[in-house]
Design goal:
single chain, 536 residues, alpha/beta, Alkaline Phosphatase, subunit A, 2 domains, 15 helices, 34% helix, disordered N terminus
C-alpha cells in the first residue's frame, strides 16, 4: 500500500512538474521578447531591400530580416528629426503633447506648439518600456538617448580640452551616469553605453566620435543577462548620423566613447580593420557610406548571434526602424515622413514579405503591446496598432496620418497630402536686426563646436523647422528645395506626384479637396495643445 501511494505521489509530482514546465513554455511563447533596433539618419540607398539601395550595400544581417520578415513599405513618422521621432516611438503620442518645461514654455510664448529637438520624456510620463516593465518584462536600452529629460548634466568650460584630464574624465562619467539614470526613470531596468546626444554635443571635441562597438557591447551584455523572459531591448545607434568621416566614425580610436577612453576596446563585432576588406570582397566601393552601414549591420549581427546563442531568437520579434526619412529631413514632405521599416520573427507573418498599410511611428507602442498581450485600454495613445495587419487583416483605405514639425503641419489621407506652414506673428515679422542677432548667436555656438555654418545672411527665409535665417544644419539640404516650399498652404496628389512638385492648393479645381483636408487637419489640432495660426 505504501509503495502504491509512493508511486501515485511520484506520478503526480512528475505530472505537476511537466504541466508547470509546459505552461511556462506556453506563456513564454505567448509573450515574445522584443528587440527594437532604431538607426539614425539612414537613407533609402542604405537598404538593399528598397529599389534605391538594391545591391549597393554589404548588409547580410539587415538583408536577412528583410527577406524573412515583413517590410512596412508605407511606414511614416510624425516628426522627422531625432528627438520627437523617439518621443513618438517610446510614448505612442504626438510630440506636441510633451510636458517638459522647455517645450511648454515655448508653446506658451509663441501661442503654438513648435515641435523640434525639445520634446523630452519625463519620469512622470507613461512610456512603452514602463508599461512593459510593469507587466513583467525586463527592459533595457543602449545607444542614443536624445529624448529623455536628463538632469544635472555639467558643461565643459573648454570644448577642446583633453578627455584624459582627470577632471574631464570624471565629468564625462558623471554625465553618462545621469543619462543612464534618466533612462531608468522612464522604464528601463538596464541602461549602458548611452550617448545623451549626438557625439558632437557630448561636451568635448575629442570624444565627438562614433563607437558602434561600445553600444553593441551593452546590447549583447543585456541579452546575455536577460535570462528571465520576456525582455524588451531598445537599441539606438548613432550611425550613420554624422560625423561620418572615417577618422570620427568607423576608423576612430575604438577606445573613445561618451565616457572618454576605455582601458580596452570592445570586442563584440567583427574587427573594424576587416570592414574595407569585406566590402572589397563583395565587389563594392569602399567609402564612408558603405563602411558605416556595414559597421551598423555588424551590430545587428552581433545581437542576432547573441539571441541565437542564448536560445532566445525563436521567441523574439525584431523591429528595425530608422528614425526618419533623410531625403527631406526637417520637413513633413514625404522625403521626411515616409520611412519604410521591417518587422521580423522566425517563420515570418501571414501578411507576407511586404505590407502597404499606412502606419506611423506612434503605432509602434500599441503594436508591441498587442504582441506582448498587454491590455492598454486605459492608456491614451495617438497611434493605432498594426498587429492585425501583420496577421493578414486588410488595413483601412481611409486612414489619416498626421504630421507636425516646427512651423509645419501635415495630413495624409490615401494619396492626398495637405501641408500648412504657419509662423507666429513675432517670428513672421521679425526685423532684419533681430534676425541678424538670432543668426549670429546660433552660428557662434556652432563655431565653438567646429560645426558647419549654413549661412551668414540674416535676410534668408526661415525653414519649416527653425526660426533661424536660412534654416538650421539638420534641414539644410531640404530648406527651399521644393517648388512650393515657401507656400502657406500646399496640396499634393501623391498618386501622380509622389515627389510633391505640383502644389494644387491655388487651383480652383481642387478647392473642395483643400477645404476637406483643412477640416480634417483641424480635427487633429483641436485635441492637441497650442494654436496654429488661422487653423486653430
Amino acid at each position: 500500500m505504501n509503495q502504491r501511494l509512493a508511486s501515485i505521489f511520484l506520478t503526480l509530482t512528475i505530472f505537476n512538474f511537466l504541466s508547470s514546465h509546459c505552461f511556462a513554455q506556453t506563456n513564454k511563447e505567448e509573450r515574445p521578447n522584443i528587440l527594437f533596433f532604431i538607426a539614425d539618419d539612414m537613407l533609402p540607398q542604405h537598404f538593399n531591400c528598397l529599389p534605391q539601395g538594391k545591391g549597393k550595400n554589404l548588409t547580410p544581417n539587415l538583408d536577412r530580416i528583410a527577406r524573412e520578415g515583413t517590410i512596412m513599405l508605407q511606414q511614416h513618422v510624425v516628426s522627422p528629426v531625432c528627438t520627437p521621432s523617439r518621443y513618438n516611438v517610446l510614448t505612442g503620442k504626438f510630440g506636441s503633447r510633451a510636458q517638459n518645461p522647455w517645450f511648454k514654455q515655448i508653446t506658451e510664448k509663441n501661442g503654438q506648439s513648435i515641435v523640434e529637438f525639445n520634446t523630452h520624456i519625463l519620469s512622470s510620463d507613461t512610456t512603452l518600456p514602463a508599461i512593459l516593465q510593469a507587466a513583467g518584462y525586463t527592459t533595457g536600452m543602449a545607444g542614443k538617448n536624445h529624448v529623455a529629460e536628463v538632469h544635472h548634466l555639467k558643461k565643459f568650460k573648454n570644448f577642446d580640452a583633453s578627455a584624459k584630464d582627470p577632471a574631464n574624465k570624471a565629468l564625462l562619467k558623471a554625465n553618462h551616469d545621469h543619462t543612464c539614470q534618466a533612462m531608468r526613470e522612464i522604464g528601463f531596468d538596464f541602461a549602458d553605453s548611452v550617448y545623451h546626444n549626438n557625439p558632437s554635443f557630448l561636451g568635448l571635441h575629442e570624444v565627438a566620435v562614433q563607437n558602434m562597438d561600445w553600444i553593441t557591447s551593452a546590447g549583447v551584455r543585456f541579452l546575455n543577462q536577460a535570462d528571465k523572459d520576456p525582455f524588451f531591448l531598445y537599441f539606438a545607434t548613432t550611425v550613420p548620423h554624422g560625423p561620418t568621416v572615417a577618422r570620427r566614425s568607423w576608423r576612430a580610436d575604438p577606445r573613445l566613447t561618451a565616457l572618454g577612453y576605455l582601458e580596452q576596446a570592445p570586442n563584440v563585432q567583427p574587427s573594424r580593420a576587416s570592414i574595407p576588406k569585406r566590402i572589397k570582397a563583395a565587389g563594392l566601393a569602399v567609402n564612408d557610406s558603405t563602411a558605416n552601414i556595414l559597421w551598423l549591420d555588424d551590430a545587428l549581427g552581433a545581437l542576432l548571434q547573441a539571441l541565437e546563442a542564448n536560445g532566445q531568437i525563436d521567441n523574439t520579434i525584431i523591429f528595425f526602424f530608422n528614425d526618419h526619412g533623410q531625403l527631406a529631413k526637417g520637413t513633413v514632405y514625404q522625403g521626411g515622413v515616409h520611412n519604410p521599416s521591417i518587422v521580423w520573427r522566425k517563420g515570418g507573418f501571414p501578411v507576407g514579405a511586404t505590407s502597404n498599410a499606412l502606419v506611423s511611428n506612434v503605432d509602434f507602442a500599441p503594436t508591441i503591446l498587442d504582441f506582448a498581450k498587454i491590455d492598454y485600454s486605459k492608456n491614451q495613445f495617438d497611434g493605432e496598432s498594426f498587429h492585425s495587419y501583420l496577421q493578414g487583416k486588410e488595413p483601412p483605405r481611409d486612414r489619416s496620418l498626421y504630421f507636425e514639425l516646427g512651423y509645419a503641419r501635415g495630413l495624409r489621407i490615401g494619396n492626398w497630402k495637405y501641408m500648412a506652414i504657419r509662423y507666429p506673428e513675432p517670428i513672421e515679422n521679425m526685423s532684419l536686426e533681430e534676425r541678424a542677432t538670432v543668426l549670429e548667436e546660433w552660428n557662434e555656438k556652432r563655431r565653438k563646436r567646429h560645426l558647419n555654418i549654413v549661412t551668414d545672411d540674416p535676410s534668408r527665409p526661415f525653414s519649416h523647422l527653425t526660426a533661424i535665417p536660412g534654416g538650421g544644419d539638420a534641414e539644410k539640404y531640404s530648406t527651399g528645395s521644393y517648388p512650393g516650399y515657401f507656400d502657406r498652404d500646399q496640396l499634393y496628389y501623391l498618386g501622380n506626384d509622389p515627389k510633391e512638385q505640383i502644389n494644387l492648393a491655388d487651383n480652383p479645381k481642387y478647392a473642395k479637396q483643400l477645404a476637406a483636408m483643412k477640416i480634417q487637419l483641424r480635427k487633429h489640432l483641436d485635441v492637441l495643445p497650442g494654436g496654429f495660426g488661422d487653423l486653430k
